[in-house]
Write a structure and sequence with these properties.
By secondary structure, the chain is mainly alpha-helical. The chain has a domain at 2-152 and 209-216. It has 7 helices and no strands. Helix 1 (2-29) packs antiparallel against helix 7 (197-216).
């Protein structure tokens, strides 16, 4: 059916926009655990507050696109398994809510940096401690978001594998790539240091998948076995 193929192409375009928007936002955010090691990190936050706010906006846009993808995919996912369709949509909504929470933490850090500059920091240690806590709060929420989104992605890629909506090699690659993100995010929760390459590999996969879907779409000859 042409409608299935076109749906895949729409999803591919949306994934591509999500990828680009998220990548730009992540680059502009400039918030890292290494930042708080600087003696003047609140000054740096203040100086980069505009681009950080732009990053927050892009983050919200990217995640809103993700919710849009879940809406577009729902009719297809529920044909295979209604529970997977509802879970995928629900996980994206939950992730979007947590994204708002994480950006509130970052926004309050920006406000803290402005207050730090305004009062001349009579107690530098006090302000820096609050700033560090805000950065940590952001990252704890961020890792939970990654766990939630990767859980939804695992359901999605499992469905792609079972239905052959895309070639099996691509659905297997997708499943393995996001499984790594799921595992290393839990390792971060338990204070294990993780190399960025474990997250970066998922970006490579997502870019390839987005381009594939944009060009090829879903396999229009796919037939679904009804499931509850």
């Amino acid at each position: 059916m042409d409608s299935i193929k076109k749906t895949g192409q729409i999803v591919g375009i949306l994934f591509l926009v999500l990828f680009v928007t998220g990548a730009i936002g992540n680059h502009l955010r400039g918030l890292s655990t290494s930042l708080i090691e600087s003696q003047n990190f609140l000054n740096e936050v203040f100086e980069n507050s505009i681009q950080m706010k732009i990053a927050m906006l892009l983050d919200l846009v990217a995640n809103a696109i993700g919710v849009g993808i879940a809406i577009v995919l729902f009719p297809i996912l529920k044909q295979y398994n209604k529970s997977i369709g509802y879970w995928y949509f629900g996980l994206w909504i939950t992730g979007f809510i947590l994204t708002i929470v994480s950006n509130i933490s970052h926004l309050s850090l920006v406000s803290l940096s402005q207050e730090f500059i305004k009062v001349g920091a009579p107690d530098v240690g006090y302000f820096e401690t609050l700033g560090i806590l805000k950065v940590e709060e952001y990252y704890w929420t961020h890792f939970l978001i990654l766990i939630i989104f990767s859980s939804g992605a695992l359901l999605f890629y499992y469905t792609l594998f079972k239905t052959r909506l895309i070639p099996r090699f691509l659905s297997v690659w997708s499943f393995l790539a996001v499984s790594i993100v799921f595992i290393v995010s839990w390792l971060q929760i338990f204070d294990y240091s993780v190399n960025f390459i474990f997250y970066g590999q998922n970006g490579i996969h997502l870019l390839f998948l987005s381009c594939w879907l944009t060009i090829k779409g879903f396999n229009s000859s796919t037939t679904f076995s009804k499931s509850v």
